[in-house]
Amino acid sequence: METSNNLETITYHVNNIWEPVLKLISYNSKIYHQLKLKYSVICDEIVQKKISDFCYKRGIQNPNFIDVKSLDDGNLLSDLKCVFKHDGGNREEFEFNCFARFFYIKNYMERKSILKIFHIDSDIALSKKFILEMNSFKKLTKDSLLLFNKNTTPVSVWGLNKMREYCDFGINEYFKKDLSIHRFCDMDMLASFIENRKIKYFNLSSSNHITGINFIKNLGNDLSILPWFLSSTPEYDKFSRNIPLEVFIKFAKTIQIADNNFSSKNEYMPFIHFQSWSKKVVKEMDKFLGEKF
């Protein structure tokens, strides 16, 4: 079994990848190499080449690549394909991969005997301080589940048993829900998993362990932080699509980077989530942020 106390961080990204996401993955890879911690990316050959080329041109070491094909014996996703229902606003392949990534991560954990893992979406940039704080948790086990709230898969820590239970719930229970009431997505599946199976989890947003986490509470209702905030609703997504790039940039200018840590309006930010259309700002960040992406 795994013997290191360090918490491996993992991202899943296959098929198309565009420059904002390349910047974020390379940024995280740089910080993890500085800290001598492990950052892994499950991806296909095309994505691996694009990340490698991007990092090489900027003198950044690659993350640890995991070939997505190596994790699938041909049957890994067969049960998921049988039950999966597409009712989201994104392409079916994209929606399916939002669920499939957890099956790949589970398989990776099982093959490598990893008891716990830190999962982040590919459109997230982590503060160095937050990475160290997450690695300072002492009693993480195969039954651990750490979340900012009950539907935040983008930044989450999973024990192996909880990851197995979550995938099992997806196959055997989740897609039987009434479509007229729910929109199928991995975040809703997490909320349903917690509610239906009475799952206990550690709430990071109410923890004093993560210093400065109050930025979520203090700035969550401020429009100037919305593009970076975890919360997302169909109404916000529709609203954000209509925000001019100049407005996003104005909001982004409130964010500073010092020693690879983020802050806004004097509030420390553990991470920035460039969710949905806020990715359009990433390509502009070199113009005004102290640390280049």
Mean pLDDT: 81
Give the fraction of residues assigned to helices: 25-40%
Number of strands: 12
Shape: globular
Output the radius of gyration.
18 Å
Percentage of residues in strands:
15-25%
Give your account of this protein's structure:
The protein has 293 residues and is α/β, with parallel strands linked by helices. The protein has two domains: 9-206, Spore Coat Polysaccharide Biosynthesis Protein SpsA, Chain A; 215-282, no CATH class. It is 37% helix and 15% strand. It contains ten helices and twelve strands. The chain has helices spanning 19-35, 45-57, 78-83, 92-112, 128-134, 160-172, 186-196, 215-219, 234-241, 245-252; strands at residues 9-12, 39-43, 64-67, 116-120, 124-126, 145-147, 155-159, 202-203, 255-258, 261-264, 267-269, 271-273. The strands form three sheets. A seven-stranded mixed sheet has the order 3-2-1-4-7-6-8, sandwiched between helices. Strands 9-10-11 form a three-stranded antiparallel sheet. Strand 1, helix 1 and strand 2 form a beta-alpha-beta unit. Helix 1 crosses helix 2. The longest helix has 21 residues, at 92-112. Residues 211-237 have low confidence and may be disordered.
